[in-house]
Amino acid sequence: MVSRAKTVRLLLLGCLIGVATACGKPGTYSQRDAELNDHGVAQMGRYEYEDAHATFSSVVESAPSWLDAQVNLAIATLNRQREGDEKLALSTLEKVLEKAPQHQRAVYTSGLIYLYLG
Could you give the CA distance from residue 87 to residue 34 in angstroms, rounded to a whole number? Predict the structure, then answer.
């Protein structure tokens, strides 16, 4: 039987495809931010969730209006699996959805978290 955490990880792996191709509005992030985002995606692919969390935190700090980077941070937070990370990730995603209610990756990831939390 597949554990609940493993199921969530497998579903979030699908999100990585979107993470790798995530785009923002022109001018919302720099080339360096894009490079760091790509690096964070690579870290997630290697299951380096702590490092990915730090990388995406840096991107969000540098480009706070880049919603895709915020979603990436939420996914890294969720996968980090510290106490309370589910709620922290959900909080990040809710802020994204306040700005962009139809943000597909934020809606999808929020749904996964709500499913996981019951």
Answer: 27
